[in-house]
Amino acid sequence: MNAVERLSDYGIKPSVQRIAIMEYLMTHRTHPTADEVYMALCDSIPTLSKTTVYNTLKLFVDQQAALMLTIDDKLVRFDGDTSLHSHFLCRRCGRVHDLPYSGKKREARELQIEGHAVEEIHHYYKGICRECKEKENLN
Amino acid sequence: MNAVERLSDYGIKPSVQRIAIMEYLMTHRTHPTADEVYMALCDSIPTLSKTTVYNTLKLFVDQQAALMLTIDDKLVRFDGDTSLHSHFLCRRCGRVHDLPYSGKKREARELQIEGHAVEEIHHYYKGICRECKEKENLN
DNA sequence: TTACAGGTTTGTACTGATTACAATTTTAAT
DNA sequence: ATTAAAATTGTAATCAGTACAAACCTGTAA
């Protein structure tokens, strides 16, 4: 699946900017911030505006073509992988790693929890990631 | 357990401000923002500074006497209940409701997931809360 | 009592991510 | 080719949160 197909799957009209941003999300599983997306693309699209990046990422989230992660209290991150999975934020290196969804399988399909209509599930974990732990142990 | 006891349990020296803020967190399970805490207390402590509220809440979180919730992308919220539980954000009324922790019991005691050292677990759910759904159905 | 030292609080100024908005450009249809 | 609608852009503004230095306590020891 390419970026254009994915956009139209979610009812988003393609444009140079939208395709580039979606492509970036699809090929970089780093959970980038809006600024990181902008910095990565502004060379290849010199006229790109930061406002467009913000608007476009918001559009993707509204259309459910991307996830907005608020795991970090400073920065909002975005994830092009909308499948049900969890996230791990390393307080050492600041990276966000994907984890398989660890909740009850049943719950993920439930529309209701305690009478509330659930539309989004976010499972976040924080700590020190494997790579940072291994580096630490070398010292 | 009163606020002063709770502070000393977490190695925090009591002061008028710290006691008032901890007391507010203990008696208001609304997951308030720093600004909400400030607005609630500035009448009874007229000299209270917003910086103090921010600093104190940060101190509580660092000492693990409170939780910082980043369920909302706009505002950081605080929770005086540090027991393992989940949260539901209603996109209609904006309130955050508590939910029992629904993850696997095993996982909560694990220090590691996929090799990462887990220090914090945050399970967030978003949607429309029961009260808002019921109000909606009346119309 | 006085003076000092440490920690705490305060107010102001600043930062930096995000948004509002109006102008410009592009797209699509007639 | 015209025109309307949609998309993009740049600038200015917003506003939660923070840095910093001055002022203020609190306890201790001369």
What does this structure look like?
The structure is a homodimer of 139-residue chains. Chain A is α+β, with helices and mostly antiparallel strands. Helix content of chain A is 39%, strand content 23%. The first copy, chain A, has six helices and six strands; from the N terminus they run ααααββββαββα. A four-stranded mixed β-sheet of chain A has the order 4-3-6-5. The first copy, chain A, starts with a helix and ends with a helix. In chain A, 31% of the residues are buried. At the A-B interface, strand 6 of A face strand 6 of B. The first copy, chain A, binds a DNA duplex (30 and 30 nucleotides) through helix 4.
Q: What brief labels describe this structure?
A:
DNA-binding; homodimer; alpha+beta; two-stranded antiparallel sheet; 23% strand
Question: What is this structure's SSE topology?
Answer:
The structure is a homodimer.
Chain A (H helix, E strand, L loop, with lengths): L2 H7 L6 H12 L6 H8 L8 H13 L4 E3 L7 E3 L5 E6 L5 E5 L4 H5 L2 E2 L2 E13 L1 H9 L1
Parallel strand pairs in A: 3-6
Antiparallel strand pairs in A: 1-2, 3-4, 5-6
Helix pairs in contact in A: 1-2, 2-4, 3-4
Chain A binds a DNA duplex (30 and 30 nucleotides) through helix 4.
* Net shape of chain A: globular
- End-to-end separation of chain A: 44 Å
Q: Give the uncertain stretches of chain A in residue-range form.
A: none
Work out the oligomeric state of the chains in this entry: homodimer
Q: Kindly name the structural category of chain A.
A: alpha+beta
Helix and strand succession of chain A?
HHHHEEEEHEEH
